[in-house]
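REQUEST ID: PR-0412
SUBMITTED BY: lab tech R.K.
PRIORITY: routine
TASK: structure prediction, single protein chain
INPUT:
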Amino acid sequence: MQDFTGSFRLAGRLIAAADPALVEIVLLSIQVTLSALVVSALIGLPLGATLAISRFPGRHGLVILCNALMGLPPVVVGLLVYMMLSNAGPLGVLQLLYTPTAMVIAQTVLITPILIALTRQVIADLNHEYAETFHSLGVPAHTAIAALLWDGRFSLLTVLLAGFGRAIAEVGAVMIVGGNINHVTRVMTTAIALETSKGELALALALGLILLAIALGVNALTSMINAPDGKRSHVRSA
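STATUS: complete
OUTPUT:
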């Protein structure tokens, strides 16, 4: 019990003192996750909106595929990205394996289907309200998509927060493609796994507490966005 309590005390000291190693890991984690989120948003939001308002052969199959890919196993994503970036892979010439960029790619692959599927749901709900107006005015598809994305910005912010929370808590994929290299690719989740296996609980606990605080912050922000009138979020509950 003393060791357990002592580890918590030391973890608190590391956080309070802004330990350089701790700060470095946290900042890299946030940098990688935000980079992946930006790339995923640039891909996922327009594609999700397009699936919501467009009608074309195979659309229903794509919707089903995107929904299914929301449950992609992270280690499978890591393996596929590893194969693409390894020296024998098609992108091996770029020498991206075991770099933060590889981790960004893995997280992007992991969360883009989530953003596409949830965005499609948000925009589809909005499109039911505006479809007749757009049709009567002859609004082109790209203009309608832009208008719906803007009108659903609060709901889409919760979608982005969901993607952020999913990415920053990821360990399997980033461990495979990043290698958990100290001062290079070590992020919070991989550092927690490593420090725990070494029996060094203080740093693992400090990182775990910060990760938990981030998760709580994301959920609190999501609740604040949806709370005012309960009508901003168009994401249906599962």
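NOTES: The chain has a mean pLDDT of 89.
REVIEWED BY: pending
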